[in-house]
Write a structure and sequence with these properties.
Blueprint lengths: L1 E9 L5 E10 L4 E5 L6 H8 L7 E6 L2 E2 L5 H9 L1 E5 L10 H6 L8 H5 L5 H13 L15 H14 L4 E5 L7 H18 L2 E5 L3 H7 L2 E6 L2 E7 L5 H8 L14
Parallel strand pairs: 3-8, 3-9, 6-7, 7-8
Antiparallel strand pairs: 1-2, 1-4, 4-5, 9-10
Helix pairs in contact: 5-6, 6-7
Bound molecules: adenosine-5'-triphosphate and magnesium ion.
Magnesium ion binds next to α1.
Length: about 260
């Protein structure tokens, strides 16, 4: 479980990224965070693994405060959290399997991983992870030879190889076309259901949020303005989150 207790974030220039956020996310949830550009979606998501430091409050992950954690205990909490980015964050010139194996780095000594010496079990784990997202045959291709959707699947496989219990995805489909978008979202959803990995996704498209989320969190100017099951997130709710009607470019369209 992830718990936010009175969390605020003020950026050094005075911008308030988060304002007194209180939140509990349960194991196995598939949460989609929505809100206007600049609302604080990335700040919220990146606070969870301390990619952004919060300035007030506390974040608890599976009973441990990541806010207070240091050194080894921080590394151990972070090891359980996989991160997926809009731009995939792969080492482009490396092979797919090397990229996936980088998910294992936190389990081994630096020297060992610098030399690329991963145990055989890790290689198996990495190949299995690629199998789960249906690109095992690409294992020995160079990452930059893959399509955008395939590269995003590699980054999902990296989180799986990491044996993450939580996946944070910040606009994972923003660089993809509508068809590939659905494939990547389907992968995330399937993994969430099959492995029970808690998944939190920032999404720009309202219809995608509705289609994939079990729970929607709406954020506006750093404040949570909606938090509830997807069934109750009506058009009115979305208009309140956005502070206006939903525009057509906020819909991916061509549903089903
Ligand atoms: N490094 C930073 N320094 C100062 N202000 C920042 C920084 N990063 C974000 N902000 C500000 O914090 C607020 C929240 O930003 P955030 O990136 O979380 O929004 P977002 O909802 O993810 O937006 P988008 O949909 O455009 O990605 C915005 O007002 C933004 O300008
Ligand atoms: Mg963002």
């Amino acid at each position: 479980m992830i718990e936010f207790k009175n969390v605020s974030k003020v950026y050094p220039n005075g911008t308030k990224g988060l304002k007194n956020v209180n939140l509990k996310i349960n194991k196995g949830d598939f949460v989609v965070i929505v809100g206007l550009s600049g609302a604080g979606k990335s700040t919220l998501l990146r606070s969870i693994n301390r990619l952004h430091e919060i300035t007030e409050g506390e974040i608890i992950i599976d009973g441990k405060s990541i806010t207070a954690a240091k050194g080894k205990s921080l590394r151990h909490i972070r090891r359980d959290i996989g991160m997926i980015f809009q731009n995939f964050n792969l080492v482009k010139r490396s092979s797919v399997i090397r990229n996936v194996l980088s998910g294992r780095v936190a389990y081994h000594s630096t020297i060992r991983t610098l030399l690329g010496l991963f145990p055989k079990q890790d290689v198996e784990l990495a190949l299995n992870a690629l199998g789960r997202v249906n690109i095992q045959e690409k294992a020995y291709s160079r990452a930059d030879e893959l399509s955008g959707g395939q590269q995003q699947r590699v980054s999902i496989a990296r989180a799986l190889a990491q044996e993450a219990k939580i996946i944070l995805a910040d606009e994972p489909v923003a660089s993809l076309d509508p068809f590939t978008t659905r494939q990547v979202m389907d992968d995330l959803k399937r993994i969430n259901q099959e492995l029970g990995i808690t998944t939190i996704v920032n999404l720009h498209f309202v219809d995608l949020a509705r289609q994939y989320a079990t729970r929607i969190i709406g954020i506006r100017a750093g404040e949570i303005v909606y938090d509830g099951p997807v069934e109750e997130a009506t058009d009115d709710v979305f208009s309140q989150i956005y502070g206006r009607e939903i525009k057509s470019d906020e819909l991916l369209g061509e549903t089903e």
